[in-house]
Amino acid sequence: MNNTPVKESEERLISAILFDAESATSRIGHLSPEMFSVTKYGTMYKTLMEMVDAGEQVDYIPLCEKLGWIKPSALVDMVDRFILTTDFVRTDVNIITNAFRKRRMEDTFRKIMADASDSGDMLSLMQDELDSLNDIGGADEDSLSEQTDRWTKELTEALDNGGTTGIQSKFGAYNAMTGGFKHNHLVVVGARPKVGKTTYGLNEAYDMARRGIETAIISLEMGSDELITKLAGIDSNVKGLNFLDKEKLLHAVEAKRKIDKLPLHIVDNTSSDYRAILNKCRQLIRKHNVKVIIIDYLQLMTGNQSVNRNNEISEITRAIKQFNRRYKTPIILLSQLSRLSERDGNREPRFSDLRDSGSIEQDANVIVFLHKDNESDDMVKIIVAGARGGSTGFFGCRFDKPASRIDALDNRCE
Description:
Layout: H1 4-19, H2 21-25, H3 39-53, H4 60-67, H5 72-79, H6 89-115, H7 119-134, H8 144-159, H9 172-178, E1 186-191, H10 197-210, E2 215-219, H11 224-236, H12 246-260, E3 264-267, H13 274-288, E4 292-296, H14 309-327, E5 331-336, H15 360-363, E6 366-371, E7 379-387, E8 393-400, E9 405-408
Parallel strand pairs: 1-5, 1-6, 2-3, 2-4, 4-5
Antiparallel strand pairs: 6-7, 7-8, 8-9
Helix pairs in contact: 1-3, 1-6, 6-7, 7-13, 10-11, 11-12, 13-14
């Protein structure tokens, strides 16, 4: 790569800071010293920014004294080659940032070609690096005014959406406590086996798709046939579609006809590796403009298996949260609770029951537990145990297992 234009941009940016530090630094945005292609200019930039932050005088002699390896005359010679102005700061920052991205990409590509075990692994690693590079800031960061404009727009839309700032849940009590499924929310839904976490996820997915919201279910446990059978039960409210008679068959066919028209995407054939799953999420967002993703379930996902399971789960949830923030798409992550919790009797779940919990509490915006006082009971309690920026509480639901339906008794939360 020809470094001449980049080198000139780095020199001109240093010159602009020396000419008018206040004006230049107000236009720089997020630029770090390691982004400079010439190490000495990165060091000069770092020193200048430290001087600005400390409120010190920014000038040739103080800079040379701090650096100790450049004479004022050499610095003057460099600066004199440019028109003394801050007009090119944004342009120079973007040139430096883009050149850094390109160097990083070239280095990463060489490393991936040497280390990747297969084409799927290569694609996933490359996409992770692209996301990382896209997160590198330049001079075009949104201003505070632009950010508050977006915030005001969200609040205005919430007024038109019944007061809910996110995508509405099927359950009004959940919306009242959390504001719905917000665009940057990772929602973890935990339950013991056979309590109904998959059924809960399907009910939310069906309800959102029925309202025209592009929704995706990524299932690592059930196949698409089993999921569609459950969805048909939710749609038709017919119990026991696994045991068909003529009347049930007619209901099932009608339910399938309606399900086919829903903006609902079912993925049941992906790898359990979290990188492959997130790659599939990217495809769903880009190809179908998916707005909500449900993953069933966390403990079936894999990451770096050379570490202990607790650290592996932490790696997975952190990656999902970073993805969630990057693509501004709410993710409902179903999670199995540890069977050890059953040793204390049939008590309500708590955070420590999150199996191989890793950093789930830290990464999740909302943590929900499903609880049945009696396994044979048709009542299930939905407990919002943690909600950043929201409130906690619970509400009761009827769990019709044969029809795969979970319906709120009312919209009150306690």
